[in-house]
Automatic annotation (TrEMBL):
It comes from the Bacteria. This is Uncharacterized protein.
Length: 111
């Protein structure tokens, strides 16, 4: 069970003494709910997936940096770099002002 849940309960119970008497019952109920959540989380992999999703942008940045740090030895390699540049760059800060149509034309010429 998450400690913050009990802290929230304790804050509420400070103003309502009748709740203090039910703390054990509430704690037990919260633990049961948390156990069901943890079981379901393990079964479907929710937390693991969320963690991987959070790490994905850093992994993508490393892969892109590695790609552009590698010397291109063929037109296929140049084409691949242009594909990545266009795919990643189109969502970047430059937005519409960057010459995306021109890069796409160069990519077609290389292909």
């Amino acid at each position: 069970m998450r400690i913050s849940s009990l802290r929230q309960f304790d804050e509420l119970a400070d103003d309502l003494p009748s709740l203090c008497a039910r703390r054990v019952e509430v704690t037990s109920t919260l633990r049961a709910h948390q156990q069901r959540w943890d079981d379901a989380d393990r079964a479907i992999g929710y937390s693991v997936t969320r963690q991987e999703e959070a790490e994905a942008p850093d992994h993508e940045e490393r892969l892109i940096a590695g790609l552009f740090a590698t010397d291109t030895a063929s037109l296929f390699g140049l084409s691949a770099k242009l594909d990545v540049l266009i795919a990643v760059g189109a969502d970047g800060a430059e937005g519409r002002h960057f010459p995306w149509p021109e890069l796409r034309r160069i990519r077609r010429d290389v292909a």
